[in-house]
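User: Run a structure prediction on this.
Assistant: Running it now.
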Amino acid sequence: MNRLIYLLLLQLSIYSCSYQKKESHFQWNLEKERIHNENRNDLTKISSKNWISDTKDISISGDPLIQGVFPVPDYDLADSTFNGVGYSGAWKGIRVNDKTIVYHSLFVNQSNVNKALIPNKKNEVFFTIVALTDTIDLKAYSHTSVSITSRNHPHYVGQGFVKTKSNQIDFVSFIMADRNAYALVNMRLFDLRIGSIVLIAPQKDGSLRSLQIDSPNLSSDEMDKHIKNLLKNNELVINFFTKTNNI
């Protein structure tokens, strides 16, 4: 009997520790989103430092969305830490047979928002676009662009484009504090929870083809290696980019 009681207490103790550990992870819900919205509407809670920085550089760019035109609340009000965002990729292009591929990854540095999921990584990639192009500008790099902003903290948004000789691939992607993540590529919606890598192959007739593939949580350095390996060794990926109807 005593042994049975001991086992039950031990099991309860393990469950309690597990529950406490789970609860210690960053949590985001609809109520927090409402508070976040209230803070955005309250001009007394606006980050003057960020607003001064943003209003110096308000301009119309070639990206789908103009950045820095809204005042934002102080990041500390979101009950979360912030350690930066960034992007990586291959602007010059990678050759796959006789094709040229450009890719961009968007990432968020480790903070209390994602630390529990990437305890041993410096950052986490939430979206990678890998696009076929037939034009590369090695002087001004006008064929492609990428940017990312933290002004929706603890949500993060990135955007950019990849040009071809006759068309342009526009993309916008975001990850929410509740871990939902999405991307729009020329108005096609991708739920990134089922795959954070999106391949785009422009066609000779002006249309596009896409292929969404999954990957584990990877840092920017790991994703760079992963994409280069896919383009070199993955038959599905290589066939997708080298079909006869592609540009």
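Residues 81-241 form one domain.
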